[in-house]
């Protein structure tokens, strides 16, 4: 292993084909932001978009903007753009509601499509809201289905003829561990089960090829790697072959075949639009579009390459410079099964992360002992990794951390 | 009946105690906007709020703003402010999701609370998304409950011992007709049924006293009279006495007792927060707060008084000046059962409304023949009514309307 130094990282930045993207984002001065896996940063163009949507479209256009600014088609339009990022076709992805609400719709629909089967399969330690939503569905259906969680190492074997749907997060929020989407989808189909992939930590971070692996359903988050803004709407994917049969219980008027006919009886829209529920959150969805546009203009393979190199270099830096400080590695060293983040463990992880944040180096902490560092190739520089670890060395070597000194940061993934 | 003229309306504006509110809104020049019952207008302060939330809170604060700008408490904080507008207490109202999603949560919860009863009661012609959501629930619960619709004149008699929950819109979106909330709630309770009131066309428009009438649940819209912006989040109300028992199926992580402990098992938050699902839509909810703040600063009785006077005068103007043109009145002349709008019927209603809109007088049309005129006392002037009817007279007298000349406006209530 070569000995790393700052000049080496500077050189990587000079050669980085994605380097120019950083200028499209408005980062706070003097910050190193390694938390784009939790909340992405502000695209500069989103400032003008917010002004346009609020002042012109809403303020001046008022109700007419549903047509004149095509508010009515935002869910489909932005959905089609996201489709291009995850290997889906036009008309298979739509922007709506939150990730949690979208999971409820997809899981309820999958259970109906696979009626007679009794098992929803997931893993313990999946992102909490996924498990909570599935528990809500289980309770609501009063024993028709039950949620079973199996450790990821035995998940393939746990898929059986009684499995209605498998619900897994492609890239794990804590460890960054990545499932083999193709293998699990294939096994599920072999057993007659459906799969819902949660792409919250994948979309815009790692290549995803939903149709290549024959995926059924997916959901994802707008405010992480897509840089859509805090609490941006989520999205969902339904493979074309499932759309005509799909029934989802949140059958609000925006999912109606003819919403403005104002009829008494629900009739599902013919395609992906049947997954919509209430009125589109116009401002949030418009800001999301800005982030999606930037991501869609970038080369996902360059993103993945830079992300993996960053992960690799970060691990090497920790090994070379922090070996004596008691950190563990919670992410795999194998890039094939690692998303766009590296997680360390340390028993004083919370206090250490607070000390980094106090220096405007922002990663995050996940109980009980995980420090997460997210690598978002469009705006994080290689040299940021050097500077981050340099600060970490100083913090550890000089005891610049103190649990009592920092108020607990409410962590939001 | 006195003969009305423009000077009379100008005098009313001079004496209007609410007149100064108009200056808090950014109305397009030369427009008369009588569609605030569909999409409210832009508060001037929302422009600066959008800039702050996007540029400072998101752009500079990033993930830290969940604490430093208290994003985490937005649903409760704005909910408490709305509570003051509808006769609820602190901790009984929360901002979340859309009106449609919130109805699903409330209806599902009510059916569970009243398990063993089989009927969800509503009226035909209720706002479509309400019926669609109830149909989705019915289908999803596979025959456990069925939706029954009864004409509003016989709704009281239709509430029986098998009724789990009554779901009605307090002020009707088309006619503006207003239910007697106290009488229906009392009858429902007498029969052991629960009631969900949809306050979409009530909140900020007419006085509502949820706790005085002993209401159980309510939902409402953020983008109409609350001026929260297009697709603003909705809100919901759960009476304190129901909160501890309430189970709702959209049990996402924001409704967890301790969301950031990231545990595998759902545990509902103790109070109203258990009705939350996914991550708060920060930008939309922040803009909603601006509109709510303005509404909360106004005197609801003055609003109601002006609204009723406007309705009365509008009807008189139509009677005095348009009697020969074939308009019918779809709203009641009795102010006690009329919300903050007056609806007319005309067989050429669509074309007539388009002709008004072409003159920047914006009401809206609801199939098959309804012209809706909404009166929002905080920014509509008395003289606007005169000018609206004056334009209408010109349109009718001189045939300045032509169905073919206007592209259909997609109407969004």
- Hey, roughly how much beta strand do the residues of chain A contain? 5-15%
Sheet having the most strands of chain A: 7 strands, mixed
The name CATH uses for the topology of the largest domain in chain A is: Aspartate Aminotransferase, domain 2
Number of helices of chain A: 13
Beginning-to-end CA distance, first to last residue of chain A: 34 Å
- As laid out across the biggest beta sheet of chain A, the strand order is 2-8-7-6-5-3-4
Total of domains of chain A: 2
CATH architecture of the largest domain in chain A: 3-Layer(aba) Sandwich
Q: What oligomeric state do the depicted chains represent? A: homodimer
The fourth-level CATH homologous superfamily of the largest domain in chain A is Type I PLP-dependent aspartate aminotransferase-like (Major domain)
Top-tier CATH class of the largest domain in chain A: Alpha Beta
Mean pLDDT of chain A comes to: 95
Helix content of chain A: 25-40%
Strand count of chain A: 13
SS-derived structural category of chain A: alpha/beta
Order of helices and strands of chain A: HEHHHEHEHEHEHEEEHHHEEHEEEH
Low-confidence stretches of chain A: 403-413
Catalytic activity (chains A, B): 3-hydroxy-L-kynurenine + H2O = 3-hydroxyanthranilate + L-alanine + H(+); L-kynurenine + H2O = anthranilate + L-alanine + H(+)
Pathway (chains A, B): Cofactor biosynthesis; NAD(+) biosynthesis; quinolinate from L-kynurenine: step 2/3; Amino-acid degradation; L-kynurenine degradation; L-alanine and anthranilate from L-kynurenine: step 1/1
Organism (chains A, B): Photobacterium halotolerans
EC number (chains A, B): 3.7.1.3
């Amino acid at each position: 292993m070569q000995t790393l130094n700052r000049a080496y990282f500077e050189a990587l930045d000079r050669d980085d084909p994605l380097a120019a993207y950083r200028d499209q984002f408005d980062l706070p001065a003097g910050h190193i932001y390694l938390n784009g896996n939790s909340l992405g940063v502000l695209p500069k163009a989103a400032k003008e978009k917010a002004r346009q949507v609020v002042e012109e479209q809403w303020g001046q256009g008022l109700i007419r903007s549903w047509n004149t600014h095509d508010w009515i088609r935002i869910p489909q339009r932005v959905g089609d753009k996201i489709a291009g990022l995850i290997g889906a076709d036009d008309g298979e992805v739509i922007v709506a509601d939150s990730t949690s609400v979208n999971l409820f719709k997809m899981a309820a629909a999958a259970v109906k499509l696979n009626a007679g089967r009794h098992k929803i399969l997931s893993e313990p330690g999946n992102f909490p809201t996924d498990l909570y939503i599935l528990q809500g569905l289980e309770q609501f259906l009063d024993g028709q289905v039950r949620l079973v969680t199996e450790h990821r190492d035995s998940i393939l074997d746990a898929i059986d003829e009684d499995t209605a749907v498998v619900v897994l997060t492609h890239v794990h929020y804590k460890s960054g561990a990545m499932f083999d989407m193709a293998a699990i989808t294939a096994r599920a189909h072999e057993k007659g089960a459906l799969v819902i992939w949660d792409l919250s930590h994948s979309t815009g971070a790692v290549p995803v090829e939903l149709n290549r692996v024959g995926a059924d359903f997916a959901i994802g988050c707008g405010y992480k790697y897509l840089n859509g803004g805090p609490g941006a709407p989520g999205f969902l994917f339904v493979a074309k072959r499932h759309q005509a049969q799909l029934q989802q219980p949140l059958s609000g008027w925006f999912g109606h075949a003819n919403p403005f006919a104002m009829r008494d009886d629900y009739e599902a829209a013919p395609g992906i639009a049947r997954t919509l529920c209430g009125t589109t959150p116009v401002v949030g969805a418009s800001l999301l579009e800005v982030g999606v546009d930037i991501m869609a203009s970038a080369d996902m393979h360059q993103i993945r390459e830079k992300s993996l190199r960053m992960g690799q270099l970060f691990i090497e830096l920790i090994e070379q410079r922090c070996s004596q400080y008691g950190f563990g590695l919670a992410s795999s060293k194998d890039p094939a099964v690692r998303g766009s983040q590296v997680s360390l463990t340390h028993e004083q992880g919370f206090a250490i992360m607070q000390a980094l944040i106090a220096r405007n180096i922002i990663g995050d902490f996940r109980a009980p002992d995980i420090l997460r560092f997210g690598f978002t190739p469009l705006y994080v520089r290689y040299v940021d990794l050097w500077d981050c670890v340099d600060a970490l060395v100083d913090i550890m070597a000089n005891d610049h951390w103190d649990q009592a000194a920092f108020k607990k940061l409410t962590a939001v993934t």
